What we know:
7% strand, mainly alpha, 3-stranded antiparallel β-sheet
Amino acid sequence: xxxxxxxxxxxxxxxxxxxxxxxxxxxxxxxxxxxxxxxxxxxxxxxxxxxxxxxxxxxxxxxxxxxxxxxxxxxxxxxxxxxxxxxxxxxxxxxxxxxxxxxxxxxxxxxxxxxxxxxxxxxxxxxxxxxxxxxxxxxxxxxxxxxxxxx
Length: 151
């Protein structure tokens, strides 16, 4: 499910399979990407098992910010956040209220506004960083770096 808009390309699966059949390089990229996706699933499963709802909430909001070019206003409803966390909406709303009381977040209709990025980062688990590091190791360049932006 797509949570945030952006450019995309649609390609018929038959054409993609034909290209993969012809190109060992393309097959290799897809195999490496599959490795990364599996690692992300494993990390998410472990995160859900051991990290608190507060740490996971902070992690998801930071992840959403990264996917919206670092914007402080993240287009994410309480319901969407609850679904991502695997909890009821009222529980996600209580966590948001706690973060609001601490001056970390505010809310707008249909979005969460990050007031203190550093405080949110401190509250987040490091699971996203683990996944990004694995992606960077296996598929160098997937996550843009500061050097790539400057160069």
